Amino acid sequence: MKILALILAGGRGSRLDILSENRVKPSVPFAGKYRIIDFTLSNCANSHIYDIAILTQYLPFSLNDHIGSGKPWDLDRRDTKVTLLQPHTSWYEGTADAVRKNIHYIEQVNPDLILILSGDHIYKMDYRKMIQQHIEKNAVLTVGCNVIEPEEAYRFGMMATDEELRVKEFIEKPKQTNLTLASMGIYVFNTKVLLNLLKTNDDIEDLDFGKHLIPSMIEEHPVYAFKFYGYWKDVGTYDSYLETNLGLIETVDKIQLDMYDKKWKIYTRSEELPAVKIGSKATIRQALLSNGSIVAGHVERSVLSPGVVVHPFAKVTNSILLNDVVIMPGAIIDNCIIDKHTIIGNNAMIGFGDDFTPNVERPDLLSNGITVLGKSIEVPKNMVIGRNCRVFNSADLTNIKDGIVYSGTTLK
Questions:
Q1: Is 210 helix (H, G, I), strand (E, B) or coil?
Q2: Is residue 78 over pLDDT 60?
Q3: pLDDT at 270
Q4: Of 286, 353, 383, 411, whose CA is between 20 and 30 Å from 251?
Q5: Cα(312)–Cα(280) distance, rounded to whole angstroms?
Q6: Which residues pair with 289 in a beta bridge?
Q7: Quick check: 245 and 251 in contact, CB under 8 A?
């Protein structure tokens, strides 16, 4: 049976704000050396699904460069390939519209089943089990789902099923519901039925699977749920991004996502960098250190991406430092997310103080004390930046009065 996987990787990830300013959400670094999309691609490779098309849209350059020919995921085989599909007539207006705009490609590949995936979730899943259930139940559509708390339902498509897992109700992002079965944005479609639905709904510009297609299919077609009980996270906010990253440094009995499982490896395109170097006076507690990083100061409950340097007498706690960030001597970093190539000057303090004023411009993004700095920023020595701050890479920090950026500030 021929299976084509379509990975939807064109979302802007607006809630990741600064981190998605110059890259699409699936391309955002995660867990030190990886990108978010690596998990979906690795799931495909480990499930022996090698015909893959990635639907990109916004800021695709970083993602395209990362994926290349797909070699790290064994996708550069003679008889299979990974294909990057960008909008060629107009922007994708919805999840199903993105697939509809690539109907000619699907018809050219001519698969029996289409596996539709999201490129921006963190999880390990054997798609073959879902496909097997789809075949056994003679389903036209199978929806991957996860049990969540009702208060989180407003973020997901929610469904109800009978004892045989046939979907009887589907509500897209309800404001209030008692349903607990959430769509993971993973679908197995019979190709002919999906193509017919896409063509017959050509009058809906923003055609979406959760909003339009799935609710309309329930009455006429056998639609089933596939329950997934493993670890699955949407890292679409600063809070979830920090929490999920730091969850990887927990003790063995507490960790929920095993990155060291040799039977289900997470693959990535990795730079050839030297081994991690630890200075003679360095102190490290509960940290994830990536290739090429150098630690001569104190690092605690933090994730360091490739090439990060923490100089002597510097202190980094509860933070994520992306590639090539440099923390100069005496600097103190707490509860921060710092994007690539940023340099923190001597004795600067980032994420400082007991003032937890929410970000004035975007309190919906930052209210729990996290401070975020963009790419290639140079923070002057002795500068103090408070909590819940957003500092974009276009910000000029050289003329800040008294060298203090107060909590809740946004600098652009």
A1: helix
A2: no
A3: 84
A4: 353
A5: 10
A6: 304
A7: no
| 172, 157 Cβ separation under 8 angstroms | yes
Q: What gap in Å lies between CA 243 and CA 138, rounded to an integer?
A: 40
Count of H-run helices and E-run strands, the chain: 8, 31
Complete domains list, the chain, with CATH:
3-247 (3.90.550.10), 277-411 (2.160.10.10)
Task: Give me the mean pLDDT over the 195-212 stretch.
Answer: 94
Q: Tell me the C-alpha to C-alpha distance, in Å, between residue 329 and each of 232, 264, 298, 341, 382.
A: 38, 40, 11, 17, 11
pLDDT (tens digit per residue) in 299-335: 999 999 999 999 999 999 999 999 999 999 999 999 9
Task: Quote the pLDDT of residue 60.
Answer: 66
Q: Is 122 helix (H, G, I), strand (E, B) or coil?
A: strand
Q: Which tokens in the block code for residue 321?
A: 């430092």
Specify burial of residue 253 (Cβ count, 10 A radius: 0-12, 13-18, 19+): exposed
**What is the C-alpha separation between 109 and 286, in angstroms, rounded?**
47
What lies within 8 Å, CB to CB, of 20 at 6+ separation is 12, 13, 14, 28, 59
Question: Where is 194: in which H helix or E strand?
Answer: helix 191-200
Q: What whole-number percentage of the chain has pLDDT above 90?
A: 79
Token code pair at residue 139: 């389903």
Contact 242, 317 (CB under 8 A): no
Rounded Cα distance between 351 and 408, Å, is 11
Distance CA 330, CA 236 (A): 32
Both tokens of residue 340?
């690539």
- In terms of C-beta density within 10 A (0-12 exposed, 13-18 middle, 19 or more buried), how is residue 380 classed? middle
Report how far residue 250's alpha carbon sits from residue 286's, in angstroms, rounded to the nearest whole number: 7
What single-letter DSSP state applies at residue 212?
Answer: I
pTM greater than the 0.85 cutoff? yes
pLDDT digits (tens, 9 = 90+) for 141-184: 999 999 988 888 888 999 999 999 999 999 999 988 889 999 99
